[in-house]
Amino acid sequence: MRPIGNLASSVGLATVMFVMAPTSDAEAAKLAGRSVKIGCQVSLTGKGTEWGQAAKAAMEVAAEEINAKDGIGGIPLELICYDTQTLESEALKTVSRLVERDKVLAISGPCFSSEFETIAPQLDARLKTVIMSYCSAKPGLSAMSKWAFRNTLTSDKQLTPVVEAWVKEYKPKKVVIIYDAEDAVSKAEGAIILPALFKKHGIEILDMLTYRTKDTDYSAQITRAKSLGAQGIGLGSCYQNAAAIAKEAHKQGLTVPIIGGACASAPGFIEIAGKAAEGAYMSTAAWGDDPRPEVQAFMKKVVAKLGGKQPPYSGPRAYDIVFAFKHCIETTGVTNKPSDLYSDRDKIRECLQGLKKFPGVAGELTMNEVRDGVGVTAILKVVNGKYTNIAK
Amino acid sequence: MIYQQLINGLMLGASYALIAIGYTLIFGVLKLLYFAHGEVFMVGAFVGLYLVILGGANIYVALLGAMIACAMLGVIAVYVSVRPVAKNRPLAPLISTIGLTIVLQNLAVYIFGGQQVGFPETVKQELYNFGPITVSSVQIFILAIATTLMVVLWLFIEHTKMGRAIRATAENHETAALLGVNVNRVVLITFMIGSGIAGVAGVLDGIKNSGISPFIGLGAAVKGLIVMLLGGLGNVPGAMVAGLLLGMIEILSAAYIGTTERDFFSFMILILILLYRPTGLFGTRMTEER
Considering A201, A303, A315, B248, which has the largest number of Cβ atoms within 10 A of its Cβ? Predict the structure, then answer.
């Protein structure tokens, strides 16, 4: 039998340890294993290149910062990233690889709504791992699975204040909408969201013209818009196509104001469109002009990684996801043991579902009931070849 | 609007015609579907872009540079993916040029990055109104360069010694060789001409569409292929006319039927041609061999 004195001292020590038990993220118990594996899906090639490059750079910045401060739960964070090539098939293939082979705890990505809506139906039945997109904005997608999250605002929420500001400045009476019939968010914006918002402001829609993602010639659409007497162009379009459409309008002498949605707002729009971009309005789910020191420190690091280029909103949003994962891993009893993989993934899911006012460089993150982010958005206008947030 | 759309069709068609000319020249001489031709077009666009943004070159120097660089690429293609491949296996050179396509595209992604880049305004934008039609200086420039190239090429093929040698080689390699034609040299020069024109087409496409990426080659190759079949295999004037025709059809279908259905019409034409007129609209010299 163990001596009572020793028992008493053991109980005393245990009590002291309990009282001093970690209560903050940084003081969490050390996790098992060599590293905490977090997956990331980025579009490094294809139409989403600029979005993917910014997201990858931002997540690397986050990982460097975390690993410089003892990692997650005392062990290093290991980011495992794959290029989805902005293709639904690759997105599905790489998510399976991350879940089944790499055995990651959670996944940041994919970027595009087309990719997201391909993966989401597979989550409940097969993958059972959190995916959290840092770009996707097509309404209704996160509701497809309890494992599907986005920390972005959906397009309808992004575009509402932007259309209002655009109408207030340019006062168009009749417009043409041009949208990508193959891209999920662009199609939602062009076929549903923009028409509803234009009608709300009493604007006549003269025609709704489509194109396919890989099209490079928009002369037919612009000639039609010009012949109809459009006073404005609404775009459901990613930045490359949006820029080419703006330039074609410029070439044909159709100098009317342009408004674009989530995918169009990458800085590449201005780079490609040049002067034709001037005066255009874009919606966005984050913008790096917040004066808080932590935001500016992040922007400085990510801009350096991107060779001096400003990231689209995928940058700040992807950075915030890594810290949200860290928070959930450290505060919910995740062990990181291979035998606990499934329960660890579920703990992270439950934690993310309940996130409220979680601080981040893109603003405070609160998840709504269908696992989309809510918060404020910026209104971008191209002024002198640069995006300016006119929401302030 | 119809006249303006016809101008749009003409612009698109000129671009298709320039790509198809190279295809059909090479097919005529080697009976080879040179799949890497679209990637040569892409390389030409990037050479032109970098000459402009890094070298500060004007558009004429950029066009010439792209033409020379792509002609050299044509020579490399012959030595890398055509000559070393067994000639008694008809599929082998086809596969090797597909390999070259992948290599060129991946190299371009590695060197230039995977994203689209803007093509700077190299031709001063001005608009001219002719009644209901508005034509821009950019459109006039592109059309002038494309037409000049096509006319010069036609004169070269029809009225020079080398042009006759190319036509003779296209008819029959052995007979041409017996008549004193250096077939290897003709093949090399044909690749240089076809690739050089594709390089110019790439730069013109960059000017027209305002942006280029390493992935523009595939779409160009597919359209070039359709135009080649439409115009008749190996038929250079046929490719010129068929290019313009396809451009018009695509634009008019986009304007009056549906903008997303333009490819449907392109491929429908391809299927109809293959079914009912396999020699193309303007015939081919290689009917018997095919």
Answer: A315
